[in-house]
Amino acid sequence: MIVVELFLEFALLSFVAFGGATALLPEMHRVVVENHHWLDETTFTHLYAIAQAAPGPNVLVVTLIGWKVAGLAGALAATLAMCLPMSVLIYLLIDRWEGFAGARWQQAISLGVAPLAVGLIFSGATLIAQSAELGWAAWLLVAATVFANLRSKLHPLWFIGVGAALGLLGWV
Amino acid sequence: MTVTDTEIQSRPDLRALFFGFSSVGLSGFGGVLPFARRMLVEERRWMTAEEFNAQLGLCQFLPGPNVINLAVVVGKRYCGLSGAIVAPVGLLAGPLVIVLLLALLYDSYGGLPLAQGMLRGIAAVGCGLLFAMAWRMGMALKDKPVFLPFTALTVTAIAFMRWPMPLVMVAGLILSGGLAYWRLGRK
């Protein structure tokens, strides 16, 4: 059954989601678009855009993917699969955290995982760019967004609004 | 009204947990962690800044959505198991309904050229925000000459080779974490 398959695939991913759901974009694309052909490239990009424009934690892109793959049951299964395993683990571990916080192996994992997470986010960005088949005008918008976001403290919603408006006008 | 750090902090009940985290979920765009901090530490004073940082440690150490992990921790702390369920549900419920309504709109109108154009524009901006986030995280890395090569390896394996991520992460963590472990021992 597709809902069960979706749940198992995403539950597995939740164990390597260092950097949150955003870091999972490339892998979700691989699983959902390339392996199972549950969604096409364009739909995947659109779902990412919708999640960007909606309030709430980044994990909701997972909900949208689940919805498109298997309706309401899919949405709930995908969201639960992404959140439940680590929630249970953290519930059991939090009281012992003080004991191993700062231990050498714990520091090593934190240090070691950080560069991998950066790579995952970067890969997600290249992948969205690829599947959206951005033209030169869109690449200009990407560059302007990177520059403005790094140089100012503007709320991300401003960028989303500008992107939506330029897109509506057919400029990108 | 003045409140000092030494004053006894308020203990939320299940209702307060649900609505507190709902407000966090609904106010954040593109990452809600800063909003969680503001609600917990500054507005409702359920914990001090030090407590927040300490609890956030495990939430960021483990994989998965950090802010969901944080809701579980805060919920457990004040209301045990039921709190650990109610807090993340509160965090997700509102945004989940909104996002599903948007999905319904997308199902009906997503094929229209105007909607397609708008989503393309947002996707382009979202792509830029991701590049910016990667840049900022990369600049914040410690010992960049040592660890940035692992970023490059991850991008090669994931974006270009399209290898499965669980495999890449386990291998990467052994190499990069192993190197970090060795370097920590030399200090």
Automatic annotation (TrEMBL), chain A:
In terms of PANTHER family, this protein maps to: CHROMATE TRANSPORT PROTEIN-RELATED, CHROMATE TRANSPORTER
Key words of the record = Cell membrane, Membrane, Transmembrane, Transmembrane helix
GO CC annotation terms, alphabetical: plasma membrane
According to UniProt, the name of this protein is: Chromate transporter
Q: How does it sit in the membrane?
A: Multi-pass membrane protein
Ranges annotated as spanning the membrane: 6-26, 73-94, 106-128
Does the keyword section mention Membrane? yes
Please verify whether the record's keywords include Transmembrane.
yes
Q: Which GO terms describe its molecular function?
A: chromate transmembrane transporter activity
Q: What is the lineage of its organism?
A: Bacteria, Pseudomonadati, Pseudomonadota, Betaproteobacteria, Rhodocyclales
UniProtKB/TrEMBL annotation, chain B:
Leader sequence segment: none
GO terms, molecular function = chromate transmembrane transporter activity
Q: Which UniProt keywords apply?
A: Cell membrane, Membrane, Transmembrane, Transmembrane helix
Report TM segments: 16-36, 85-106, 118-138, 145-161, 167-184
Annotated Gene Ontology cellular components are: plasma membrane
- In the UniProt record, does the keyword Membrane occur? yes
Taxonomy, superkingdom: Bacteria
How the protein sits in the membrane?
A: Multi-pass membrane protein
* Cell compartment(s), UniProt: Cell membrane
Name the InterPro entries on file.
Answer: CHR_Transporter (IPR052518), Chromate_transpt (IPR003370)
Instruction: State the similarity comment.
Output: Belongs to the chromate ion transporter (CHR) (TC 2.A.51) family.
| Protein name as annotated | Chromate transporter
Question: Which organism's genome codes for this protein?
Answer: Candidatus Dechloromonas phosphorivorans
